[in-house]
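re: that chain from earlier
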Amino acid sequence: MTAGVLRERWPVAREALGEAAGRFADLLRKADGLEARAVGGWSAAEAAAHVVAIGRMYEAMVRGETIPIEGVQEGFPQATIGNLKGLNELTLAAFAERDPARLADQITADVASMLRHTEDDDPARPIDWLGDSRVPLVGLFSHLVNELMVHGKDVAEATGMPWKIPNEAAALFSEVFVVWILRYDIGRLQETIVRPPRRRIAVAFTSAYTEPFALVWDGRRLVAGEPGQRADLRIRFEPATLNLMLFRRVSKLRAILTGKVVVRGRLWLLPGFLRVVRMP
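^ sequence. v structure.
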């Protein structure tokens, strides 16, 4: 997979971000009962505020400005997948807005600003991210699309509202964000992996919605491989279901039984591999 995919996915990511933010804002304006529990210990209002806070961060980051939420800028370099919960809680404490109409207005304004300020930008421009990692600009957009989609589902389910995750938009998370943070610089994000596998595990991914790609645990770190290399596991997937599985909204058993995630090869290696691609 070459850097050309970043240019190809740039208009897709821009359109997906605008569409996802619009639907998320509409959801917040129409939903009742946002005090209901949504995910983990968060209410629907807190899950929504979490997403809007990320939008606040990313709007500043694409403009090269300091993150406008107290304490977050200082916490970024020390973040790992294992300690990200602490940074999330710090962010929610500092970003105190919970009113759904004001949250809707904020995400709408921030995404509009992101789209406006990057209209003529290079989608491959590196952006400093969590844990001293770096992502391409289009990867940052792709990550925010996924946050809107996954937490939109959390809010919708908690408040009894409908929510759809289009596979075309969901595909951006794996094909653009995950693959290219590994190609740019993963930083210290994986420093706290629990029981990492001792052996190399190569996994080939294919989907109707992405170009083929590969992820490889080389015994020390996760890297982006090349399609066509020898693979221990082969995974064919629908992007929306894979993302929900990785973020523990759908069980691995359900994803596999529905045929939306199909795994072939040395299946005994799958649990170890999933430990190193664990999402917060």
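DSSP finds ten helices and nine strands in the chain.
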